[in-house]
Amino acid sequence: MVRTNYKPLPLRSLKAGTGYHRPSSTYKPVQADSPAIEVMTDLQKVSIATIPVDATLAQATQKMVARGVRLLLVNNLVGEILGLITARDTMGERPIKLLQQSRGKHSDLTVRDCMTPSDNIEALALNDVLHAEVGHIVATLKNSGRQHAIVIDTDANGDELIRGIFSITQIGRQLGMTLEVFDVAKTFAEIEATLAT
User: What phi and psi values does residue 85 have, to the nearest 5 degrees?
Assistant: First the structure.
């Protein structure tokens, strides 16, 4: 039987000095020789941020800011991964070069224009990650000059699935230090100066 009559719950005033709950830190401290899996964002535990391939760069940037991430997986209408886009892709040299070539407006650029297509994405195998240490992941990211690394696994049918993501920023937080894998121009003026040379 469906209830049709509900009694309101009692309300009360807040006491002076009331605080609020804060989430516990999801990043536990690690060392270089800690298991690599301890610094991986596990997509079985955390949902990944995605963006449609036809979204604008501005929408992609807004979504990254809202989610507090620097990488979005790019998907189509049926949820297949078509690529990825990073903050470096949306605000770095690539959009400026495209605008110089096309003489278009920034608002015309879409995720499709600046993303890394899935066939150009290199990934780590989960089995290798399970036998690696944090230092191996840092060395891999530095060697590739990338902020992120994708980790793949296979399901019971043998199909590949993205299982996790490594972020150099997150690893740095967990190590208690700042890690850089490349020099990023800080302003559009610096980017334009780089392109002019």
Answer: -135, 140
